[in-house]
Amino acid sequence: MQKKESALVPTPPFSDAGLDTVPASWLLLGEQLNALLSASRAVTARMSDSFGADLQPAAFHVVQWLHAFGPAQASQVADALAMDRSATSRLVGQLRQAGLVESRAGTADRRSVILSLTEEGSRRMQAAIAYKGEVFRHRLEGWSETDIGHLTALLRRFNSDGING
Predict the structure, then answer these.
(1) CATH number at residue 57
(2) Which terminus has fewer CB within 10 Å in the chain: N or C?
(3) How many CB atoms lie within 10 A of CB 147?
(4) Is residue 125 a contact partner of residue 64, using CB atoms and an 8 Å limit?
């Protein structure tokens, strides 16, 4: 699946030309978005760590995707996560060995492999989601429903504008 490039999204090589004309409010917003992304990566890393030190962090993304979308062909998971198919295959092997993912032959095409979470994989993903929920609850303590609603609306608007066309 190829992403549509937007005129609003710069492509490498990046240039610092014109940075002096960027409004200060945009720079401050950029700092806050970077902080948000860093915090999100830290939470994801902790969630990944809970799956075991022997697993590569990228394996967690496979489990997360299967939890969100259900059983799927290995190639579909690789494409959805923008991972090389051979790398995905290695990650799936680790996950199978850890008892978190199971695979079976496809019904329509016996050559295809259908991946799904095991009960243990689902249990650990539920625990990771509960941890993430606790992190968000802690960060939002003291926020009014109105403030949360405003933030949600602004993020929805931000996420839907520009990048996908």
Answers:
(1) 1.10.10.10
(2) N
(3) 11
(4) yes
